[in-house]
């Protein structure tokens, strides 16, 4: 069980990831919504999630979300595709307590790819992109959640998924040289299956930290979609409709791992001082 200390009670919108990847989402939502306090929780002690089973991911994601609820958040964003893919649907179907909300990062991305505005539930239709490369963790790829959500909205889109083993570990270990080498080899593997994608999805919130490497390996004519700004827009829209979810607490950064180590890596990634505290 994870418990968050009482001194951070009364906080506001919770942002959860297994580790540092959700900081790419946090950065974008903070820029878009500078007056909203965010409580970021990194389950660094258990990262990476992407090599775990769906049941294990569900258990860890519900424990982390519960800890954010207990600390005073009414709304938690799963800034983690792996948790969104493997756990969110089951959480929304029966686990989320009354008065609380949990949102994921998949749908805003798929709405952008399929040229839809928020909540457009009209039948699936033809869209511009025809050949989409999906880069994600092994658990996200095997869940097929991306293909399922896409099929609700678009027809005739060919998706080739590449499970990018090792990239999250390399980023968490701050080994960007290894991360770049792995990105190149995963893009090569994808191109052997789909030589000319029109679009690529960075379906893991860690990957925007390697966006230049993905773009370079894919080539300039492939449109690379990453989530941060899309999630920020969609959250702004949601909070406009549900302002009571904002709260009035203080922003904070919490981790189940070693706060010093996590703070160092986070500061390097976001290029601004980030101080994590122990959850
Ligand atoms: N950043 C997360 C995601 O979006 C989790 C990666 C992991 O822990 O394997 O999938």
Automatic annotation (TrEMBL):
GO molecular function: glutamate racemase activity
Source organism, top-level taxon: Bacteria
InterPro entries: Asp/Glu/hydantoin_racemase (IPR015942), Asp/Glu_race (IPR001920), Asp/Glu_racemase_AS_1 (IPR018187), Glu_race (IPR004391)
Active site, UniProt feature: 80, 204
Pathway annotation from the record: Cell wall biogenesis; peptidoglycan biosynthesis
EC number: 5.1.1.3
GO biological process, one term: regulation of cell shape
Residues holding substrate: 17-18, 49-50, 81-82, 205-206
The reaction(s) this protein catalyses: L-glutamate = D-glutamate
Pfam families linked to this entry: Asp_Glu_race
This protein's record includes keyword Isomerase: yes
Keyword annotations: Cell shape, Cell wall biogenesis/degradation, Isomerase, Peptidoglycan synthesis
Principal EC category: isomerase
HAMAP family, sorted: Glu_racemase
Job of this protein: Provides the (R)-glutamate required for cell wall biosynthesis.
Family (UniProt): Belongs to the aspartate/glutamate racemases family.
PANTHER family documented for this protein: GLUTAMATE RACEMASE
Protein name: Glutamate racemase
Species per Swiss-Prot/TrEMBL record: Octadecabacter temperatus
